[in-house]
Amino acid sequence: MAGKNNPWGGSGSGDEPSGDGPAGDGDAGSGGGPRNPWLPGGGEPGKRRSASIEDIFKSRGPEGPRRAGGGGGGGGPTFRLPERPNGKSWAPVIIGGIAVGWAGVTSFHFIQPGEQAVVTWLGGKYSHTLETTGFTAPWPIHMVEKENVTQVRLEEVPGTKTEKLILTGDQNLVDLSYLIRWNISDLALYKYQLNDPRNALLEIGEAAMRAAVARQDLDSVLTGAGRAEIEQDVSAAMQARLDAYRSGIKVQGIEINKVDPPSRVEEAFKDVSSAQQDADAAINRSRAVAQQTLARAQGDASEFNDIYEEYKLAPEVTRRRLYYETMEQILSKTDKTIVEGGNVTPYLPLPELKRRAQTPPPPQGE
Description:
The protein has helices at about 55-60, 90-105, 185-190, 195-215, 220-225, 225-245, 265-315, 315-330, 350-360; strands at about 60, 65, 110, 115-120, 125-130, 135, 140-150, 155, 165, 175-185, 250-260, 335-340, 345-350. About 40% of the residues lie in helices and about 15% in strands. The chain is rod-shaped and about 165 Å long. The strands form five sheets. Strands 8, 9, 10 and 11 form a four-stranded antiparallel β-sheet that branches. Helix 7 packs across helix 8. With about 375 residues, it is of the alpha+beta class. A hairpin with a 5-residue loop joins strand 9 (about 165) and strand 10.
């Protein structure tokens, strides 16, 4: 290897400087270590260092990699799109295609049956309502929000495992829960008229329910006699108030789920209910007896009227028949028998004789 250049920039013997390296490169004769071939332009004389990733990328110029000892200006890697046949760039075409695709995707809106959509300018000011499938300006110029307006929604008041006490007309408390069925009648009003439409619905429903229950007494509320009337009153009152607020909500109906006494006085209410049931049973029995007595009296009156009509046709015959029937009823209950014979009227105790004949004789030896 003596007398030959080594690949690191110095001679193999270290006595003579290398004539192959560029000017300014360190060599073995100057006391430096071997030159790193990956460093651009060589290293500093007398020093040895490793290549870094920055040095490798800096070694590439705009026209390709620079030679190890070459000069030239710096600069990072560059990227250019291929040119069109006419020499112009493809960038405007690509950007235009993306814009057209974006406008097409965000401008068409498919509206399902039963749905509507509100369209707003830049997500703020209301523009119009889409009731069927259609087009709008692309996003974000027009922003679209869909909503199902035919779906009947349910609101349970006061919710599960919660007690809601309401005062009746006779100053009693009941634990009452009910269900509100509603849907959206005007989507624009529903979205933008009230700050919280659902909360407004619940507040209006509670006020209407308390007012309706306050017009009923405890018995009608507990037994269910007044529940239908309460449900109708609450539904009508709620709809009137919601329309006055222009809420865009339609009340489909009110259904009372439960009416119970308060938990703290439930035992007392059970006793009262039991006594009430006993009273109702006694009243029903009395009414049954009264109806039977009235029916009997009406029958007797009808019979008397029939007899009177016959009496007017033949008074003497009717009078005699009534006399015989009356005497038959009276004499059938006596123990005396009267037999007419000549001028003597003998008395025979026939009933007494009959009883004696039917009485068995006493046993012998007594």
